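Input.
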Amino acid sequence: MRETYCIFSANYLPNIGGVEKYTQNLAFALEGLDKTVIIVTNNCFDLLSHENISPNISIYRLPCYPLFNGRFPLPKKNTEYKKLLKQLNKEKIDYVSINTRFYPHTFTGVKLAESKDIKPIVVDHGSAYLTFGNSFIDIFVRAWEHFVTALLKRHDIDFYVVSKAGLRWLTNFKITGKGVLNNSIDAKFFHAQSSQRDFRNELGLAESDFIVSFIGRFIPEKGIIPLTEAAKQLQSHTDIHFLFAGDGVLKKTIEEYQLSNVHLLGKIDSNDVAALLETSDCFCLPTRSEGFSTSLLEAAACETTSIITHVGGVDELIPTDEYGVIIGDTSPEIISKAILELYDNPELNKKMAKKIYERVVNDFSWEKTAERTIAACQAANK
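Output.
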């Protein structure tokens, strides 16, 4: 009989984020290994409360209050919520994997696992404190994270992370992680599914123009404002253009810069993301915190050099300066300097892109991560 893996993720598609993509890709990889998967998430988009998204993958969407534009969903424990949990409890479940520590949704997963005498694993996706871009609010967010982690530690749980940086981060909460279940990608498939959308032609850019791309949420921790400041500093280089794909609370702030070399593309699907990365000369993510950036993997899959801060996943994917550019901080001056290094050295850029592409193809597959997840769940329940 097929084993059933229940994955809890506070947010899921169509919300765009690293954890959401991690959950989706892991679910399909587990299905490919002859497992049944149940995804449990919050219904931030008023979608069907329960449906099958694949022959062996179903999803439960629990009613919630989508605080902070859905970034922090709180359970709405109404009649529908209780009905869905009752239905979920009747499911045959062998193992439980929970993404992230600090959501109320995490405890829903723990409670379900304990009711079925299953020891869950919690997979942490961060390498720094969660931030909402407001220093006053962030004080309470940090206190909440410590408080909720202390409560979580009272339960019998095995903790895992998505990068080596995550293991170091967990020690701040006096947690010793059991191992790494790294973010991954089907590199050849991702590259092949490109829409071939011609962004250069759409924006009137020449083939010789140097394109710096950013893909992600327009929020403070992703470093979008320092990157915009770097674009401002590089305006004298009229053949360097910045293409930003995504949306978020800082969109209006970016628009107020009124920079002719910055082009806002809005949200784009994964096919267009591949096309954007293919035409980019480099991908830049001056982020403050990442578990293991999905966009970093996607850039590598499209043979595009990355400029990124030393966050989770970077140690694994960029072990030396032959594979990409790691910047020490997110100051506009440092970002500008890194961009110009690649701009002035096209052959070096090509060599880096080729090296990181070969690395992601050979070492970062979802099948391997799914196999490690299976082993982690089984080890927790020996």
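The domain at 187-363 is CATH 3.40.50.2000 (Rossmann fold).
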